[in-house]
Design a protein that fits this description.
This protein is an alpha/beta fold. The chain has 20 helices and 14 strands. It folds into 4 domains: about 120 residues, Response regulator (Rossmann fold); about 170 residues, P-loop containing nucleotide triphosphate hydrolases (Rossmann fold, 3-Layer(aba) Sandwich), CATH 3.40.50.300; about 70 residues, Orthogonal Bundle (Helicase, Ruva Protein, domain 3), CATH 1.10.8; about 70 residues, Arc Repressor Mutant, subunit A, CATH 1.10.10. The longest helix is centred in the last third of the chain and has 19 residues.
Length: about 475
């Protein structure tokens, strides 16, 4: 991410040459700047592999649909597929709130409306790049104590010592690469090489040479022999991310390596041997890809000797708060700022959020809140401004309302309760029942507060207010 000149790499993607040239000139004082005017051109620069930008400054409205944000949204995913550590700042004239929220959920760290002052952008870029991800410093890369994470930890420790392939499945941004790295660190191969290759990040016609290497003159531009990832991984671990993107015609060659360890460099007849442990990952449904003829069934079965499913963040309950606290502490320390804190209603809202962008989205939320609310309390309205509310995963169906047939039974229970207690208190009893119903709804909704509110027949804001009131009552805070 640093150029030969020692400057940090920066990529600008904008189809307006005046904006691109102006920003290149201004930011070129501090950064090594590359520019592209289309998504295709930007992806080509990333696939070239010579430069990996530390930050990409991109427009949403790009050809061939400059009046819609589709190409820009797709480019965010492309950049993160090719270079997951690249930070993204969106600079766009299509700056309505929904576009900003969705861009951030996809992985953008910040969203800036056009026109923007170049000096403001420079300071923003400096600040965004000052935040560093330290999740790989943790033993297994996982933070949290929920049942899904406990299961994941157990699988990582169970599968790590084995030499057999592991297939990691999970949504984009859920942390599949962290699980792959943990498998290596927890294995006896921990001191051996660990190489990672994103199959979506290189041109299809370069995948074979990248994986298996080539001899001198094997193709135009092959000026000398070169080893591929299988050789460089040696007896360590080779992680192939986005394995579903592997071209169909190359799949038999990968299958051969998995079956007997043999492969050949392009342009050679000599068989070479690999003892690398293969770990793959995908956010696709590979079984569906097999059924539709885009992925070989025999390769799928070889890759999935062990399968690990990375849970989505929305399935982890209170662990989303633990993760936020982890990121908050790190980024506040890095920026030399006081950490922000969430109000009770903001905490409940975060627990209810569907996180379409998973852990990557939460990390960027922590960065923005650290910047905007250092040392202050974040309310529910402040938090919701950072969420992609229009693209949350769909909620489950609402349960039917209770019928009046249960009224007599409820009266009987109340009668027995009042008669059996000399210290009966209606307010305390109603509060106890309210807490019980709220907790029951949260359990049924798997802590999705929007769904819980529908189960209880109230709107979301009312539910937040009731939870907040109940919490204050417990603390004895005056209303």
């Amino acid at each position: 991410m640093t150029s030969p000149t020692g400057k940090t790499e920066l990529l600008i993607v904008d189809d307006d040459p005046l904006i691109a040239d102006t920003l290149s000139f201004f930011l070129g004082r501090n950064y090594e700047v590359s520019t592209a005017s289309t998504r295709t051109e930007a992806v080509g620069l990333l696939r070239d592999g010579k430069r990996v930008p530390a930050l990409a400054l991109i427009d949403l409205g790009l050809p061939p649909t400059p009046h819609r944000p589709d190409e820009g949204f797709a480019l965010i995913a492309d950049i993160l597929a090719h270079a997951p550590e690249t930070r993204i700042v969106v600079l766009s004239g299509q700056s309505d709130e929904l576009n900003a929220r969705h861009a951030r959920a996809l992985g953008a760290t910040e969203f800036v409306a056009k026109p923007a002052d170049p000096e403001f952008l420079r300071k923003l870029i400096d600040r965004v790049l000052s935040f560093r991800d330290t999740s790989t410093d943790i033993d297994d890369g996982l933070i949290g104590e929920s049942a899904p994470l406990q299961k994941l930890r157990a699988q990582l420790r169970q599968f790590a010592p084995s030499p057999f392939p592991v297939l990691i499945e999970g949504e984009s941004g859920s942390g599949k690469e962290l699980a792959a790295a943990a498998l290596h660190r927890l294995s006896e191969r921990a001191t051996k090489p660990y190489l990672a290759l994103n199959c979506a990040a290189i041109s299809p016609n370069l995948v074979e040479a990248t994986l298996f290497g080539h001899s001198k003159g094997a193709f135009t531009g092959a000026s000398g022999p070169r080893a591929g990832y299988f050789e460089d991984a040696s007896d360590g671990t080779l992680f192939l991310d986005e394995i579903g993107e592997l071209p169909l015609d190359l799949q038999p060659k990968l299958l051969r390596v998995l079956e007997n360890g043999e492969f050949q460099r392009i342009g050679e007849t000599q068989a070479r041997h690999s003892t690398a442990r293969i770990v793959t990952a995908t956010n696709r449904d590979l079984k569906k890809e097999v059924r539709e003829g885009r992925f070989r069934a025999d390769l799928y079965h070889r890759l999935s000797v062990f399968t690990i499913a990375i849970p989505a963040l929305r399935e982890l309950g209170d662990d989303s708060i633990r993760l936020l606290e982890h990121f908050r502490a790190i980024y506040a320390a890095q920026a030399n700022l006081q950490p922000f804190r969430l109000s009770a209603t903001a905490t409940s809202r975060l627990l209810a959020y569907g996180f379409p962008g998973n852990v990557r989205e939460l990390r960027n939320i922590a960065i923005r809140l650290t910047t905007k609310f250092a040392g202050r309390e974040v309310g529910v309205d402040d938090l919701e401004a950072e969420l992609d509310l229009g693209n949350e995963p769909p909620a489950a169906a609402v349960l039917p309302a209770p019928t009046s047939a249960s009224r007599a039974e409820l009266v009987a229970i109340a009668l027995a309760d009042i008669q059996s207690r000399s210290d009966f208190n209606l307010d305390a009893t109603l509060q106890l029942w309210e807490e019980a119903y709220i907790e029951a709804a949260q359990r049924l909704a798997h802590d999705n507060m929007s769904q819980a509110a529908r189960l209880l027949g109230v709107n979301r804001t009312t539910l937040y207010n009731r939870i907040d009131t109940l919490a204050k009552d417990k603390r004895g805070t005056p209303q």
